[in-house]
Amino acid sequence: MKSYISRIILGIFLLCCSFIFSQQLSQNQFKVRGNCEMCKERIETTAQKAGAKTAKYSIDSQTLMLETEPNVSASDILKEVAKAGHDNEKFQAEETSYNALPSCCHYEREGIIQTAEEHYMQAKAENEFYVKGNCESCKARIEKAAKDAGADSAEWSAEKQSVTLNFNAQKTSADKILRKIAEVGHDNEKYKAEDQTYKNLPSCCLYDREIQFGEANPKVHFEETVEASQAGHHDNPRDNNQEKSIEGVTVTASKAATSLNKKEAGLIFNIDKKELLKAACCNLSESFETNATVDVSFSNAVTGTKQLKMLGLDQKYTSLTKELLPEIRGLASAYGLNFIPGRWIESIQLTKGGSTVTNGYESITGQINTELLKHSESPETSLNLFADFNGRTEANITSVSKIDDKWSQTFLLHGNGTFGDTDMNDDNFLDRPKGSQLNAAYLLNYNDLEKSGFGSHFGINFIKDERTAGQVGFDKKIPHAQQSLYGVGIDISRFQVWNKTGYVFKGKPYQSLGWMNQYTFHQQDSFFGLRNYSGKQHTYYSNLIFESILGNTNHKYKAGANFMYDGYDEDYLTQNFKRNEIVPGAFAEYTLTGLKYTLVAGARIDFHNLAGTQFTPRLNFKYDITPQTILRLSAGRGFRTANVFAESQQYFASSRTIQILENSGNIYGLRPEIAWNYGASLQQEFKLFGRKSSIVADFFRTDFQDQVMVDLDRSPQLLTFYNLEGKSFANSFQTQWDLMPFKNFELRFAYKYYDVQADYLNGRRAVPFMAKHRGFVNAAYSTNKNDKGGFWSFDTTLNIVGEQRLPDTSSNPSEFQLPAYSPSYAVLNAQISRNFNKKIRAYFGGENLTSYSQTNAIVDFKNPFGNYFDGGMVYAPIMKANFYVGLDVTF
């Protein structure tokens, strides 16, 4: 009996202590505004001088925890903190005190500070309670425990670290529910979980037990975007459009303009549409001007086309997808970057090195995935108008709206036209083509993931693009025989329809099934002087993916099957090339998550009717040396079939004759391209000027097992294709430093080194048009928003490009010979924009403000039908400084 009474007394004592402690905690926790480490030091020092026994300030939660003696008033301490320049829930700092703070300490003074007590009472009124957790598995566990304890509904927020309950007080109580939540392993403001229960949670759920209630959880990266099919994670809380992820169906926008995904085993950069607004970004080829990872360059002086390069290799070795579906490949390789308008883009995920096997076998140097606008909290229609000072105009209309609670739709319309004759170097050739593009898309989205578990996304896209280039005055409507001018005509029609449908299993947020399908038709009719080229491509793609766990969320896996059909019909001069590529395949991927590491191992097998059976393994490993120091390793294999005509159109505007040295292959008589890619990176975060700063250094090597060589050196009059006999490799090193010296001012520095060599028929040489050294600087500043949401933004980017090896032209007459190496040069872009409010934005910018342009970009431009004419020897910009203006209006 005594033992029983003792237990009751002990229980009452512990409960009272807990109650007293929680009351003391709420009474000694105060809202105080600050910005950086200097603020933290100032606030804590001031509080201690004013009589606080201890003072601990959290920048993340904007709260000051005080421990005081009974005879010391917290109000007196907060009054001194305000005198030091920091607004708090009881006193406002004088304007002179605030202005005297260093610029890095100028916190936002908007809004009303809510006291800790007010927040506590408001939370109780709404039945909201602090509960610690990390991920979607935590969310499922917490909400299930609450419902098991009698709650009618429960919604846990990773961002707030709290659960909102709805229950019948006659059937249960908040105390009973919170006790049940603690029993399954989650500390809350009333009960603490047993140590053993906590330790038995999956590693991804092991939250930090030392963090004060109300403070942000550093394991929850709200600034990062996690694409479901790339990450395979369902532990990504989101601040906007909070949804469960379906494999390949749901993507959300990130808070940061550009962020490196710390959770991912691979090196994945998330580029938000905010980043795209820093430059003209009229299409995807211009969307990387403020990004150091991707190199953008002109590839032809006649057609003005741009190409991307990554890890020192051409665009064709990077998998370019839209909505995680194959996009810029095959016949679209040369001009496909122009088919995704910048204003249509919601986000871009850029993966360096080996990407996941679930997205196919073609990725060798990485993957760039573009997501179209789909998410909006309220109906939103936007109009964008753009014009530059050399005759290019553009208009975009985007509209995102909800049909009902489950259905939403997006209308996307783009039109552009280039009407002016731009010839800045006076060679009588247009520096860029004239013509127009009409581009329209419709997206329909269904989301019932929370109830039925189903979600679906449907899209349709049509493009008509017509371009004319060549000598000034050329008219492609007039037959060639009736005019002596050299001309280029490129007409493209493109149609796509796709669907992605997924299902999340009820009660199992970690288990899903996704199915993606797409049909693409692409047709190009073109001529380059007297050289004709046309082609048609039919592509059908299907991908079925199942995702689940083995025991717990530390062990995740994906498995699936896919099918790809490509039908090609090409005409070059008088020759016809037809082929059908039929590729069924299967894949599996396993993800192991530990306390400090993540391992993603995958493999796929594809049965290519022309390239044979191909095995593609890929491995990514991430180890958190500390929470701020992350090491990544990767290795993987990829293969692709080369489309030698479509991918080499930059050399068609020349006198070069195409020569294919067949080598027992089934694609133009050539074998497929196969390469291994290996990489390592180190990411280090630290505080500088009281703000977050990071340095990322990475090294990647690509080794080709087989490659289709594009040889420009055998003769200035030949373009020769043949399979590699020997070695071909690319070494890439990049280091990037991001910092914020003071509020609203961001800096990005990068240096890149490339060593790209191959064994050609005439010996080993550096691959042409690839600079060994590149430098990059980006600076961005924005003013504080006014009460209408208006502000100014300033952005400038400097690219420094080192010398590049040029193709051998020594057999040409001396006046038509190029030097062995190009000179180094620098390109400066800048933009100023003004947001008048949340709905109206105007911008003005300039490209290539250094006005550097390549001298004699076209070899023998005076005789375009002669033996030495060549418009493909391009290593630098063709156009000098160009200025533009634009207007964005949201309705």
Automatic annotation (TrEMBL):
The UniProt record lists the TonB-dependent receptor-like beta-barrel domain at 418-849
Q: How does it sit in the membrane?
A: Multi-pass membrane protein
> Out of the domains of life, which is the source?
Bacteria
Coarsely, its chief localization is membrane
Where is this protein found? Cell outer membrane
Which segments of the protein form a coiled coil according to its record?
none
CDD domains per the UniProt record, alphabetical: HMA (cd00371)
Taken from the record, one Pfam family name reads TonB_dep_Rec_b-barrel
Entry keyword set: Cell outer membrane, Membrane, Receptor, Signal, TonB box, Transmembrane, Transmembrane beta strand, Transport
Q: What is this protein called?
A: TonB-dependent receptor
Task: Name the lineage.
Answer: Bacteria, Pseudomonadati, Bacteroidota, Flavobacteriia, Flavobacteriales
